[in-house]
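AraC-like DNA-binding protein
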Amino acid sequence: MEQKIIEPRKKIKEGFIGQKRIVLPPNIRKKVVNNPIIKTFYLTAIGHYPKAANHDIERKLGSKDYIFIYCTEGFGYIHILGKKLLLSPNAYYIIPKNVSHRYQSHETNPWSIFWAHFSGEIAESIFNRFAEGNLTQVQEVPFVESRIRQFNLIYTLLEQSVAEKDMEIINIKLLNFLSSFIYYKEVNPDVYNTSSISKSILYMKKNLKEKFTVEDLAMQQNLSASHYLRSFKQKTGSSPINYFNQLKIQESCQYLYFSDMSIKEICAELGFSDQYYFSRLFKLITGISPSRYKKLHKR
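Structure:
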């Protein structure tokens, strides 16, 4: 029997439909470094990659700048310090400078990301505020539409002018933009006082075999269903059941990739009584069927 050979997926560094990308030329960067107002913190590159299929970048020697990556759709991975970190919607990470790394979009559900490279005298302190001693911890923030508008404003201003005062405004706004992520808990204590949502997500992850309704999950956190639903959507941008289903499908990908379990066995392991429903949900989230995923990615 002729053996079918599956070609490895093509890696793409840059070049996506609808992408935005600006890299500061050396002469402008030199002026910024000598500007007393913004030399402590400044961007060197910025961009937005929507639905970045096959996006895959590796820097064995790391980058001279810090790299901020914020995922709004799909999934991706960051390989750093011996760890493989999952970046999901409403999660972000800052890659430290001079550290070997690789990042790539998910094979079937590629990420959409906003990103920026930054440097300056306080860049390390900004990174340390993000990491808080844990260099491999991805952070999550609730989706806020105004944050995207702020990013687009920064990008538009940079497109229009690199004059001295404009660069000052751009970099001050970028610092404010990053602060909206790093200091979100401190600036929005009302959201994080209801840490019940974080506890609920952890509860979901520990009980992937179960079937839950919104009422079940709300009761588990001693909240009314309406308050729980509103708080969950505010924090994650998703409904609880959709989020729970995404967690199940992510886990099923691990089984398909690393184990010899059949699809029927995986369904039973993850609490799906209807194999056809599982297959439809899997395809809706990943773009391909479980059997196709298994053939493409089985180790």
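The longest helix spans residues 164-182.
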